[in-house]
Amino acid sequence: MTIVRWDPSRELSALQQQVNQAFSSFFEPGAAPTATTARWIPPIDLVEREGEYVLVADLPGVAQDAVTIEVERDVLTLAGRREIHHDAPRGGVVRSERVAGSFRRQLTLPEGVDADAIEARFADGVLEVRIPKPEAAKPRRVEIRIGRDETPAIDAPVDEREPALAGG
User: Fold this and answer.
1) What is the pLDDT of residue 101?
2) For residue 76, with 0-12 CB atoms within 10 Å meaning exposed, 13-18 middle and 19 or more buried, which class applies?
3) pLDDT band at 27 (very low <50, low <70, confident <90, very high)
4) Of all residues in the chain, what percent are helix, strand and coil, respectively (each to 5)?
5) What values do phi and psi take at 159, rounded to 5?
6) What is the mean pLDDT of the chain?
7) What is the C-alpha to C-alpha distance for residues 49 and 155, in angstroms, rounded to an integer?
8) Tens digit of pLDDT for each residue in 141-167?
9) Mind listing the domains of the chain with CATH numbers?
10) Is 109 in a helix, a strand, or coil?
11) Which H/E stretch holds residue 16?
12) Which SS3 state, helix, strand or coil, does residue 111 take?
């Protein structure tokens, strides 16, 4: 008899696989999950620099005209679609791991970002969006004067002001 040491990670891995299969069959009945039916979420990096934020998104296989960038209020939305075309006849694809479909990523911008100053560049499947930082609210110092100001706050004839001051 061979003694096998119990490994909880092996059992957790098997359980995770069963749960994944159950959910994929629930959302797509009658179809085994494949890479082409999976949801594609392109990876992004957001880097903070001196006067700007730079968003970099990897969009391999996405045409430039299939990508849109919109800013509404303080939310930047990056959306698009990637198509996968095979030259093989129907049923001729033996293995397909590339994912196709629509994607949508949203990023909350700091308050005060000038949407008209945002710039985007797309080259070699990489999208770079430059977002200028908003001007920081600068504190304003209020001057404090000594003494009374000779100009009254409300312009009124002298005769009307004096009884109110005497009776008040």
Assistant:
1) 87
2) buried
3) low
4) 20, 25, 50
5) -60, -35
6) 78
7) 53
8) 888 888 776 665 565 555 555 555 555
9) 39-85+97-136 (2.60.40.790)
10) coil
11) helix 8-27
12) coil
Q: How far apart are CA 103 and CA 60, in angstroms?
A: 13
The Cα 126–Cα 47 span in angstroms is: 15
Angle at 127 between CA 125 and CA 133, to 5 degrees: 165
d(CA 136, CA 141): 16
Burial of 131 (0-12, 13-18, 19+ CB in 10 A): buried
Is residue 24 within 8 A of residue 37, CB to CB? The reply is no
Mean pLDDT of 93-116: 86
Q: Of the candidates 62, 132, 73, 133, which has an alpha carbon nearest to the alpha carbon of residue 104?
A: 62
Residue type at 61? G
Q: What is the CA radius of gyration of the chain?
A: 32
**Calpha distance 128→119 (Å, rounded):** 8
Segment 54-61 shows an average pLDDT of 94
Output the CA–CA distances (angstroms, integers) from residue 153 to 114, 148, 158, 163, 165, in the order listed: 39, 11, 13, 17, 14
Structure tokens at 130: 């430059």
DSSP-derived letter for residue 65 is: G
* Cα torsion angle, 103, 125, 128, 54, sign: positive
Q: 80 near 66, Cβ under 8 Å? A: yes
